[in-house]
Amino acid sequence: MRTSIKTAILLGAVCVSGITLTAAALNAPPSISSASDVVPAFLSRQAESDKLPDTFIATFAPTGADLTNARFLGAGQNARYFAVTRGSDKICIATIGKAAEPLGLACTNVKGFEGYGLRVGNDDRSEQAWLISPHGAAGNTLKSADAVAATSKGGQWKQIAPSLLVLEPRNQ
């Protein structure tokens, strides 16, 4: 009888552990393994509106980023934002000013992207953009675009695309 009670308790503990692990796995966001996990538009053909200006391509060609395969993410008051890749392991934000001038290119690793994303800002701090995981991140304060799009000291984060937020200062 004691053996059957111990077996029942052990079996119950194993079942509860299995259910807990299964529930955690089902609630965990998908991991990001490619740029298309962040910007699904990379799976489609590039549209004319996705193309970067020639001046941007000429300026940033030495970086090794694939500037001819960009995807338009969205626009703030002062800049337009595009996603590009650099190799198979990096995703980048290309920032273009209102007059089509190249403002910057910032990249980060795809692996671990869901932990923070990629955040860029203009030199004059007139605007910031944040490319984040469309799935959120388990165990992190960065849960989703909806969770981040809240008031901050510097202004209001606005979701302008599924994975892109733009912070525009309050004084504008």
Polypeptide structure, described:
The structure is a single chain. This protein has 172 residues and is of the alpha+beta class. Helices cover 24% and strands 30% of the residues. The strands form two sheets. The chain has a five-stranded antiparallel β-sheet with strand order 5-6-9-8-7. Strand 7 and strand 8 form a beta hairpin. It is globular. Residues 10-26 and 137-143 have low confidence and may be disordered.
Largest sheet: 5 strands, antiparallel
- Spell the H/E element sequence: HHHEEEEEEHEEE
**How far apart are the first and last residues' alpha carbons, in Å?**
77 Å
- SS strand fraction: 25-35%
Indicate the structural class: alpha+beta
Mean pLDDT: 79
Count every beta strand, where a strand is a DSSP E run of 2 or more residues: 9
Q: Evaluate the radius of gyration.
A: 21 Å
Strand order of the largest sheet: 5-6-9-8-7
Based on Cα principal axes, name the global outline: globular
Total helical elements? 4
Helix content: 10-25%
Unreliable residue stretches: 10-26, 137-143
Question: What attributes does this structure have?
Answer:
4 helices; alpha+beta
Give a nutshell description of this structure.
By secondary structure, the protein is an alpha+beta fold. It is 24% helix and 30% strand. 28% of the residues are buried.
